[in-house]
Amino acid sequence: MHALLEELGSAASAALVKEFGAEKLSVPVVFEPSPRADVQCATAMRLGKSLGRAPLDVAALLADAVAAHPAVAKTEVAKPGFVNVTLHDAWLAAHLDDALVHRPVGAGQTVVLDYSSPNVAKPMHIGHIRSTILGEAMKRVLRAVGYTVVADNHLGDWGTQFGKLIVAWRRYLDAAAYARDPVGELLRIYVKFSDEEKAQKAALGVPVRSDDDDNDDAPLPAQAPELLREARAELVKLQAGDPENVALWKQFIDVSMIEFERIYKRLGVSFDEVLGESFYNDRLPGTVDALLATGTAEPSQGAVVVNFTKERDGAAMTPMLVRKADGGFLYGTSDVAAMTYRVERWNPSRILIVTDERQQLHFRQLFAVARRLGIEAKLEHVWFGLMRLPEGTFSTRDGNVISLEALLDEAEERAAAVARSLNPELPDAEVANVARVVGLGSVKYNDLSKDRQTLVTFTWDKALSLQGNTAPYVQYAYARIRSIQRKVAELGAVPGPLVALEPAERALVLTLLKYPLAVEEVAMSARPHVLCDYLFALAGAFATFFNDCPVKDAEPAVRAARLTLCDRVATVLRRGLDLLGIEVVERM
Ligand code: ARG
User: What CATH superfamily classification does 2-87 receive?
Assistant: First the structure.
């Protein structure tokens, strides 16, 4: 389909160049699939002005230009300036196998993909899952179109929370509880620390912010509570290499990693690198020196900051602090170091960083710094809306955390009920597997299927529904095809070439051919919901086909052709879900 769209586009462009001259062609002529035609071109509406012609006239020219292409059966001009193209059935049938081939648009290029990146000593909660799931899908999609992908888990293993944790450890640790559930106990003492800190603040009359884990880099206020002073002191000792604090810090990382890895395994997620913030510690002094030497950063009241101006950076933003007056470095400093390191080590053409919406300013600042340092890679902050439960949002500090594992357990339980209701005869062992695949699938698909920049509210009924754009719906479509294939195979029938296409078959072939377009769009725009929308549409087109076109009872040549369609649809559903990190089952 890609090749055809390009051929139509260049035939149409050539006609316009011939008529009006190349300099008049202000935008390229684009043909693309559309709900109203096999292929449509809307460029005439954009070109009318610069060509000095009515869009309908331009459209007529474009239609003429592509009419002779061997794939084109019919062209039509529609108000206010569309060209609608109908393709030959024979062309569609002959190109069926293109549905399974991606253009290698990423060949020879490397992408560094920074995702998941949870914070040590805090459990991964439902709010972290989206970075992990989106990132993993992007990794698979980018690889499918030929990119070399470096999947890097930029662990939050450094920062002010360690001062607090060390104080909390010494004051509040319950050793038995820690032995049973290390990260749970670390969370408990962390929450206790902040409760006590809040109480001390209240006693001092200092205002308490409701929810903010990220603002601990600010200088200590004059009226800081005792606990906070202690935490800062422990942090300074840790940064200076105090053996006891360093040993504690390492222990926090180790116990957290065990937990993270268990979850990654369950989710089927894997990384090539786990270079946490602390990996860059050695590089921070040099990073700030380089920023100063290139004039990117400047001293300001004892600290070092990067200032941004509209002229130079496209927007005036608040300055970015890269070294505090006390000599301490910040989250942003290690990000600058990471950026430089990644460019030197992998020479990527793109760097993608997946986090929630709250870090948009941070990455706009960081990318402006990178541009001033001469970094040419395309830098993309793949941000997503915070996940909410109907009862509200999440915060580690308040202890209002839904554990990701509890969520996945519940997903599997609920999916088991769905599996039993669909097919009461399924043996228990198979129910367990269906429950795992559908339960995990629904949680992932729920995150992936919505435009990442919209706010997601999680509800079980929606995530597990067998109707609509959900994992169970798409997984069920796959299982249903597999069951048809088994039944027909029992009759000894095998797939064969396509024959004259009925409308539902034609629509199905056309939908199949759009699969590589959807995958490529996800790779380029980092919006996996486009692939979910596609799979949902394909499952829908299959449902219509299956309703209108009997497979088992059709005469042999038609049955063979329909088996081929079943086979391709099953393959695309399975591969598409796999790119999203979601498995299928052979029956449910
Ligand atoms: N650990 C950070 C957080 O949880 C996310 C890190 C994202 N990556 C980065 N290079 N800053 O907020």
Answer: Arginyl tRNA synthetase N-terminal domain (3.30.1360.70)
